[in-house]
Each structure stands twice: as C-alpha cells, then as structure tokens.
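Hi all, long-time lurker, first post. I run a small reading group and we've been trying to get comfortable going from sequence to structure in the token notation. Rather than ask abstract questions, I figured I'd post a concrete chain and ask someone more experienced to write out its structure so we can walk through it together at our next meeting. Sequence below, copied exactly:
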Amino acid sequence: MKDILVTSCFKKLIRLPLKEKKNRGERDMYYIENAHSAIISKEDFYAVQALIKKRAPEKSKLRRYENTYDGKLICKACGRHFVRKARGDKLYWICGSNNRYSNCDVGQISEQSIHEAFYKLYYKLKHFREVILSRMLEDLKSLKLVMLKKNGKTALIDKKIKSLLEQNRVLNELRVKGTIDSAIFIAQRNDVNHRLEKLKKEKI
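-- Answer (accepted) --
Happy to help. Here is the structure in token form:
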C-alpha cells in the first residue's frame, strides 16, 4: 500500500486564474497511510535505496579513475582542454573547441594512444632521467638568468621614464606661470618626448 500527504499544496484565491501554492503551514495537512495499492512494497523500496547508497561511492571512485587525464590534456592549437568521449566501446579524447559552435583543426585521439604515449614518457624518464632532466634543468636556469636580466633592465627603463614624465610636468608648470620662454619650453619638451619614445621602444 502507498502513503499519501493530503493538502501539501492548495489554491489561493487572490485573482483569476487560480494559482497553486505550496503549503508551508498555512493549511492543515493530513498523512494517510496505505491509501491505495503501491507499485512496489515498502520493504523493496527501502532495500533498493540502501543498495543505491551502498554502490554510490564505488561508482564515483570508478569514474575518477577512468578520467585520469581529465583537465590535464590541453590542445596545442587553441589551448582548450580535451574532453572524453565514447563511441560504442571505444574511448577517445577531443578538443573542447570541437562542438556545434566552433571547430578545432586537431582531431580526436584514442585513449589507447594516450596511454601508450604516457608509458613511453614514463619509460624514458625512468631510464634516462639524468640526461633528460639535467638538460631541462640547465634550460630553466638559463631562462631564469635571461628573465632576471630583462626584469632588471625593465626596472631601470621604468625609472628613467618616470623621471622624464616628472620633467614634463615641471616644464608645463613653468609655462603656465610664464617663467620660461616659449622657445625654450618647446625645445626641452621635444627633447624629453624624444627620449621617452626611445625608452618605450627599448622596453618592448
């Protein structure tokens, strides 16, 4: 038998047409047990719910395992993440740009190919890690030195630009006050602007 809750909703007469409203205590509600025959018994219902709850963690754990590459594969052409697709019993990965709104030149890649590429990389790192990683480390050190030099040079250029902008501000104040000759003002302003343009080009 199935239980029912009576007056869980009611129609409130405010204006036509009548609109149904959820009963949140405005009206009395009545719970009737075994009101009519149910499709399944209560015992079967609760047994199924318990089984669903028991299997849920196992299912989510399996899903995480199967999506090991999720969020880690990035398209070399457009920078979007790859998404996992299934066609029958075949699994493959495709660029997220390949949808009905846009299209990427990079085609689909089978999950088996990705597994094989990962195993090859793991083998190389395991057996030749000293050669590969030492070379990579040297490249990173060289890149760091280049960036440090570039950042130091950029900071010096920024300091010079700030000084020239201050000179421009002072020249404008002197012109407004009439304490500098117009010809001298124009000549010095042009010189400052020329040096500013030169520094900005060096910064690029």
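A couple of things your group might point at:
Confidence is low (pLDDT under 50) at residues 58-65.
The helical segments are 42-66, 111-177, 182-203.
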